Amino acid sequence: MISGKNIVLTGASSGIGLEVLKLIVKGGNNILAVSRTAEEKLGGFDKSVTAFNADVGSAKGVDSIFKKAEEVFDGGKIDIFIANAGFPYYEEYNYADWERVRKMFDTNTLSPIYTYSRYLEHLNGGEGALAMTISAIGQMAMPGYAIYSATKFALQGFQQAIRLEKPKNLQLTCIYPIATETNFFRVANEKEFEKPFPVQSADVVAKKIVRGIENGKRSVSPSALFTLSKFLMGVCPPVRAVYWKLEKNKLDRFTGKK
Questions:
Q1: Rounded to whole angstroms, how far apart are CA atoms 7 and 173?
Q2: What is the pLDDT of residues 135-170, one digit of tens each?
Q3: CA distance 69 to 216
Q4: Do the strands 128-133 and 80-83 form a parallel or antiparallel pair, or are they unpaired?
């Protein structure tokens, strides 16, 4: 169990972030729990938790998180930063809307990239751990999630390159959950749609994330089935084609094409 650490957790008020918060609060950690509605939803959560409202989709928002952490943590040092905030769209990408696309890239991609550089500045040569939620869709795109896939593929490319550059004082853990039973799908589209296969429970995902960070893992893939399927699809590409076809059928039913 992670214990006695100063931890920043973004996306803390719902979904995987909330389940991670429930676990790390048990370890005697000091936690800055961040989301756009953290103070309303987590204000009375636990005395070891400082709820803080911030929009991570801007440099100003990320900067405010570091400033707040340096105020509330003893010594001002962040031992672990879990950059978990992000959101999806589920849709057919057939429109031209620069701002709609930019908004997701700001939160899902630019924010963790900027957080990486700000965290290195914050550590100033000291030891620290940064965890970023990339998701399985950053390794295999999905129909209905074109923009979301693009934001995560970009983050995947960033982490691959930055591992060749990062200093030894920084532990980098990348997290690759599959579809998880949270409010993720309600955010993706207000209209109900069929979830991708398979779907994991958020508490199982959170346990594996916390364990992975604690053990200094380079990556955490909470679903053994996804790990196996990546291997099968690599050696037998028709398996992936069949899977994609099944998921495309779901999108076609959603859009009324079937």
A1: 14
A2: 999 999 999 999 999 999 999 999 999 999 999 999
A3: 22
A4: parallel
Give residue 127's identity as a one-letter amino acid code: E
Strands 200-201 and 30-35: unpaired
Q: Give the pLDDT score at 169.
A: 97
- pTM given for the model: 0.93
Whole-angstrom CA distances from 133 to 53, 84, 223, 243 are 20, 5, 14, 24
Picking from 151-165, 166-180, 183-197, which range would have the lowest pLDDT averaged per residue?
183-197
DSSP string covering 172-206, please? EEEE---SEESTHHHHH-SS--PPPS--EEHHHHH
Average pLDDT over residues 112-117: 98
> Which residues partner with 82 through β-bridges?
9, 131
Task: Locate 111 and state its tokens.
Answer: 């924010």
C-alpha 109: how far from chain center: 10
Q: How far is CA 68 from the centre of its chain?
A: 21
Closest alpha carbon to 2 in 18, 26, 37, 35: 26
Q: Is 168 exposed, middle or buried (0-12, 13-18, 19+ CB in 10 A)?
A: exposed
